[in-house]
Amino acid sequence: MTDIDIPMEDAGRARAPSHVDLNLLRTFLAVYRAGSFTSAAPLLGLSQPTVTAQIRTLEQQTGRELFTRLPRGVEPTQPAHELATQVSDPLDALASFEGRSGLLSGHTAPVHLAGPSELLCVRVLPALAPLVAEGVRLRVATGLTEPLIEELRAGRHDLVIATRRPRGRTPASVPLADEEYVLVAAPDWARRVQTHPAAAADPCTALRDVPLITYAEDLPIVRRYWRQVFGKQLSAAAAVTVPNLYAVLSAVNAGAGYSVLPRSLCEEYLASGRLTLLHDPAEPPLNTLFLVQRPGADANPHVVRVRDRLQHAGRTW
Fold it and tell me: pLDDT class for 97, splitting at 50, 70, 90?
């Protein structure tokens, strides 16, 4: 088999030929998943100029620009996302049938894993370190759950750690772990809050004059804490917003104010006394993490090893 049919649901969207060389599609999918011509080349056993030439040929045959060339790597275009959605499952199934893993011939393909950057750093990569030492290769991406799930559907990731159960038409997902959220501040602020006359009866009032540091302007994590723990709506406005929980942690640790953070992220700070719990509810708010797998990804045995390792590690998180 040397070519494959490309569905033409909307002929006005692209000048796709009735058949495309299968090797071109394999090269396309390798570049799509690897993020660059240079990274895809050794996975395919090809030179980088050959990969570039094959992608150029496929673009000419389909009448689409598939990748935007960047100073480092490439960015898939919308037609590339559409094409990956069409061909990833058939190519992975064919690779499995041929006794191959992913797009590689002769050695096992890297595992494409994605999730929140903070969780990957604190929990996931340390858990997978033994597998890396045993030869498992990882290609890790970070981002928000919804975009990552869409990229997984298009074949760009094998596994995604999601902060909520995917909605709508979804691949298979299983609960991975429960993440606890804690209300914290640096010790100086904690002493001021704890000695406030209203601290015992109404912790919310004691926090009224303390700057709030948060992940986003709509205060998603803090609002949820207020609703579940205090049973009321949060009325405070953020003093600082920064879309990175490590940056929130850094600001709180430096004494900028208070925040609600995953316990895993600030556990060492709490243990060393650099941060202090401002409230210790009997039932702290929990957020369930989910492990989502792309259909056909287990054709690569290393995907199975990573998935099983994460599920085992998740029981202790």
Answer: low
Query: 263-279 pLDDT, tens per residue?
Result: 999 999 999 999 999 99
**Pair type for strands 111-115 and 159-162:** parallel
Give every CB contact of residue 245 below 8 A, 6+ residues apart in sequence: 116, 118, 215, 261, 262, 265
Q: Mean pLDDT throughout 44-65?
A: 90
Find tokens 């700057």 and name the residue. 211
Sequence-ordered list of residues with C-beta below 8 angstroms from that of 246, at least 6 positions apart, any chain: 117, 118, 121, 265
pLDDT digits (tens, 9 = 90+) for 152-203: 887 789 999 999 988 766 678 999 999 999 999 999 999 999 888 877 677 8
| Domains within the chain, CATH numbers bracketed | 1-107 (1.10.10.10), 110-171+294-317 (3.40.190), 178-286 (3.40.190.10)
Q: pLDDT tens digit string along 235-252?
A: 889 999 998 999 999 999
For CA atoms 182, 231, 226, 199, give the dihedral sign: negative
Is-contact 155 29, C-beta < 8 A? yes
Checking if the pLDDT of 66 tops 90, the result is yes
